[in-house]
Amino acid sequence: MGKGRIFRIICGIMIAVIIIILIVLFVSDDSNQEIADIDMNMPYADTTNWMQYLSDDEYLSEITIPGTHDSCAQNVTLGYVMRCQNTDISQQLNNGYRYLDLRIAMDETDTGNRLKLVHNFANCHESGNLFSDYLYFDKVCADIYSFLAKEPTETVIVNIKIEDDSHSVSDISKLVTEEIRNNKDYWYTEDAIPLLGEVRGKVVLMTRYQDNTGVQLTGINLNWAEQNNTTPIDIPYELYVYDNYRLWVQDRYKYSVEDKYEAVIDGLENCEADENTLFFNFVSTSGAGKIGHPQGYAKNLNQLFMDYDLKDNTNYGVIILDFGDENLARHIYYTNSF
Known about the structure:
Elements: H1 3-26, E1 65-68, H2 79-82, H3 89-94, E2 99-109, E3 112-119, E4 122-123, H4 137-150, E5 156-162, H5 169-182, E6 187-188, H6 196-199, E7 203-207, E8 220-221, E9 238-241, E10 246-250, H7 257-269, E11 277-282, H8 294-307, E12 318-321, H9 326-333
Parallel strand pairs: 1-2, 1-12, 2-5, 5-7, 6-7, 7-8, 10-11, 11-12
Antiparallel strand pairs: 2-3, 3-4, 9-10
Helix pairs in contact: 7-8
């Protein structure tokens, strides 16, 4: 066999290995979740507009709300360890989710600075194509506005976290403010928990960053410490007291499946959400090991959560999932007082 042919064979093998690695890193497996036994005869079974059946006089913190964690991490680099959703924002909203967790960073483009969606250091993309464009904040906002225009009885909480070590919080928050001011009719930006009637057809702004310039919009400003311990503690949630409200958070995102499930249930059984108190209970985890696989953990956690008997007419706060579907959303919001 000639040297040229050997070289071509070696090159072909190397290219094949690289392609396989890229596929493994960029995408993740899609596995069907077991269909739950959900009563579809309820008038609020339609996940696109379930909030229309709730009273205008309920505070947003008094409503059990399904949410998604790292909401834009569907088509994301390093997919095996970074992918957290298998639907885009439009589909999540149609599926009944009303809390979105957006992680942003600045992208310096030829036409100016834009905000892109990220998961930590990994970029989110518009599609599963390895070479597709970044997913940008204005595109995500446009999808939310489109949903609210069609479903004006609904409201969407958008909680924004900056994950960018290369640009200042001030510069990034200016771009957030620009988007909001250009579409001000769609946004609620007060630093107070609103009544549902005040925010139907609107986006409720929440932020997880401190803008020290004092001139940018931060809405309901929530800054909680990272709950990145792997060893379980007796009380898995933390309390934060602000001027206008309180916040409970359970986000032990490095727990094993077993420990995470216990933390979630602890939150469900001891939830203190009320008109002045928000409760965020994250079902998501990246696992206690060095390399996580959110989809694998979510498959087990979501089924365990679906099997848990939630009580009717009970406020469980915001319950936040990886890889949530319509039935998981129904399982959550059916607990409200309709």
